[in-house]
TrEMBL record:
GO cellular component: cytoplasm
Primary role: Catalyzes the ferrous insertion into protoporphyrin IX.
Binding site for Fe(2+): H209, E290
Single biological process term from Gene Ontology: heme biosynthetic process
Keyword field: Cytoplasm, Heme biosynthesis, Iron, Lyase, Metal-binding, Porphyrin biosynthesis
Protein's UniProt name: Ferrochelatase
Sequence similarity: Belongs to the ferrochelatase family.
Tagged with keyword Iron: yes
Metabolic or biological pathway, per its Swiss-Prot or TrEMBL entry: Porphyrin-containing compound metabolism; protoheme biosynthesis; protoheme from protoporphyrin-IX: step 1/1
HAMAP family recorded: Ferrochelatase
Length: 353
């Protein structure tokens, strides 16, 4: 008689956390809340590379006295019942990714959202992971194209926290995903769905957040990463060079930033006869003030004022199913060695894209 085989011991739940990171937002669209947010954001030396002795008097004596009221008005124009669009969509992404991983049989993975500035803060989420007994954390900055002004600032904060720990977390970092197939496929799907409804434009403009030209001259690869994304997306869409254009928005201060600038470019295009333009912002994982107010309100008005006939904004990836698939694939690809190999190998790749 064959002896009964022992029942295999259940696998322990992996103590792994997935930390999605984004820029952040004021808690509410009021001057006081915006002032707190801007003080933290513009006080980051990764964002403004001016010696503190020179910058702090300007920031606290001029900018934080004048800018919060105007910025609060702009935030109010895009605020929703769920609050800040950036926060609402980022929270949806975290929730949907958690569900995606659960459907893939990886439910024990913990997914959290941390904002570099404002709430919920990155440090608070790391403390929560620690309290949950999580020892390994995959950091996923939701900036598709790496820049020292964004991704590196997130990593600064995480490493500074980790350095203070007796038992440091084991960290793994996704530097960027500018060329990731799932991200490019999601952008293409979002664009094609827009075209199926509205038809193709005379030109597609891809507007990225700008940074000072000096940063690029000193070695920041951000511009190259933006151009790479644009080229790959254009190839997916079958666009010729004359059918799309890359621009940069959100210039701040008097220094030269990455060019061409979005609004002057579209004004000139309209003046030269461009009639129908589609504008998208591939550098933002979620719609926010810079996309909804600056692009879809201010730049729209400028283009139409100069003679353009139709300005059509293509929303960011937000909670689109193809992006959640791409994000899930991105996460799984970076968990090798932390999860059993068969758990990753059996997962469908981009099943909804």
């Amino acid at each position: 008689m064959t002896a009964p085989q022992p029942t295999p011991a259940p696998r322990p739940s992996p103590s792994i956390g997935i930390l999605l990171c984004n820029l952040g937002t004021p808690d509410e669209p009021t001057p006081a809340a915006v002032r707190r947010y801007l003080a933290e954001f513009l006080g980051d030396p990764r964002v403004v590379e001016i010696p503190p002795l020179l910058w702090k008097p300007i920031l606290h004596g001029i900018i934080l006295r004048r800018r919060p009221a105007e910025s609060a008005r702009k935030y109010r124009s895009v605020w929703t019942e769920d609050g800040s669009p950036l926060l609402a969509y980022s929270q949806k992404q975290a929730s949907l990714l958690r569900g995606w991983l659960g459907e893939a049989g990886l439910g024990p993975l913990q997914v959290a959202l941390g904002m570099r500035y404002g709430s919920p803060g990155i440090v608070a989420q790391l403390e929560t992971f620690r309290a949950q007994g999580i020892e390994r954390v995959l950091v996923v900055p939701l900036y598709p194209q790496y820049s020292a002004t964004t991704t590196a600032s997130v990593l600064d904060q995480i490493h500074q926290w980790n350095m203070r720990q007796r038992n440091m977390l084991d960290l793994r970092i996704i530097k960027d995903y500018a060329a990731h197939p799932g991200y490019i496929a999601a952008l293409a799907r979002r664009t094609l769905e827009h075209w199926q409804t509205h038809g193709r434009p005379d030109k597609l403009v891809m507007s990225y957040h700008g940074i000072p030209q000096r940063n690029i001259d000193l070695g920041d690869p951000y511009q190259q990463r933006c151009l790479l994304t644009a080229r790959l997306l254009a190839e997916q869409l079958g666009l010729r060079e004359s059918q799309y254009r890359v621009t940069f928005q959100s210039r701040f201060g008097r220094a030269q930033w990455l060019q061409p600038y979005t609004q002057p470019t579209l004004e000139e295009e309209a003046h030269q006869g461009l009639q129908v333009v589609d504008v998208m912002c591939p550098g933002f994982a979620s719609d926010c003030l810079e996309t909804l107010e600056e692009i879809n309100m201010e730049v729209r008005e400028a283009f139409l004022h100069q003679g353009g006939k139709a300005f059509r904004y293509i929303p960011c990836l937000n909670d689109h199913p193809s992006w959640i698939d791409g994000l899930g694939d991105l996460v799984l690809e970076n968990l090798g060695g932390w999860l059993p190999a068969d758990a990753i190998a059996r997962q469908p790749r981009g099943s909804r894209t």
